[in-house]
Design goal:
12 helices; 82% helix; single chain; 279 residues; 0% strand; mainly alpha
Length: 279
């Protein structure tokens, strides 16, 4: 089956929000403290919502616990990747490898059946994301690359876990709210352990942009979790990674990063992949 138009548009909007909050973290003085502050702000928002959502079904609790643990590693590797690499390099690498891993794993671990059009879309979007990065990786950090690849593996793992967890929860919103409520404290404790007093001072200074980023990450992830209930996980995961187009635009206009012809060509290939997903 093809992705319905309303799901396609909502996931694209989620992709825009995802690129925006990543740009907020990348532009900060401390990537880890910004990521921790953003995560903690998202957790506080979700704690306020918690009394108004139902408890997820018991079958989803192991998935929730596993995802909360993985998200700690996600934010640690995200901060490391942005510390050692540019947004225009690390972001496509992290977001491009992950959907390919999800698609390959989904064949063996999930019951999703992807059409030829969806497989073509997965291939085109993955090529469009990775080709501009891998064609001319001039002056890239080996350390940043390795951390970004580790982040991609984490993304693939929690995508599969959250896809199953959301389906088992009986309510996508409830699963999302509980997830962000659970993973906020561990990430904050890691930041405190590393930076101690500086972490609190930093959070006080950066609470406004981090709160905006928290709203973006909640909106982005909530939409994607809901979409995974409505459509094949791999197709939704790949469509969300069109956020690299938005990240390229944000990097070019706000972070003064060069867009380049290869990245424009990659964006065109990604657009073709979006069309293929809907065939």
């Amino acid at each position: 089956m093809s992705l319905p138009l309303h799901i396609t548009l909502l996931v694209l909007f989620a992709a825009l929000m995802h690129a925006a909050w990543n740009a907020i973290v990348k532009s900060s003085a401390s990537k880890l403290l910004d990521a921790a502050t953003l995560s903690f702000a998202a957790g506080l928002i979700c704690l306020a919502i918690l009394p108004w959502v139902p408890l997820p079904e018991r079958a989803s609790w192991p998935w929730l616990a596993a995802s909360a643990i993985l998200h700690v590693f996600y934010f640690l590797t995200l901060a490391g990747a942005y510390r050692w690499s540019d947004l225009s390099y690390a972001y496509p690498l992290m977001r491009g490898i992950a959907p390919l891993l999800v698609a390959l794993s989904g064949i063996f671990l999930l019951d999703d059946q992807l059409t030829a059009g969806m497989w073509a879309g997965i291939a085109l979007i993955t090529i469009g994301i990775l080709a501009p990065v891998l064609w001319r990786p001039a002056a890239v950090s080996v350390k940043g690359t390795l951390i970004a690849l580790a982040n991609a593996v984490v993304i693939a793992c929690y995508t599969l876990i959250d896809g199953n967890g959301t389906r088992a929860s009986g309510n996508a919103l409830s699963y999302c709210v509980w997830l962000f409520s659970l993973d906020a404290l561990p990430i904050a404790l890691v930041a405190l352990a590393i930076h101690r007093r500086r972490a609190l001072d930093y959070a006080i200074r950066r609470w406004k942009p981090c709160t905006v980023g928290a709203i973006f990450t909640l909106g982005s992830y909530g939409i994607v979790l809901w979409a995974m209930v409505q459509a094949p996980i791999a197709a939704v995961a790949v469509l969300r990674e069109t956020s690299v187009i938005f990240a390229a635009i944000i990097g070019s206009t706000l972070l003064q990063e060069r867009l380049g012809r290869l990245r424009i060509a990659g964006a065109v290939v990604v657009a073709c992949g979006i069309a293929a997903l809907r065939l």
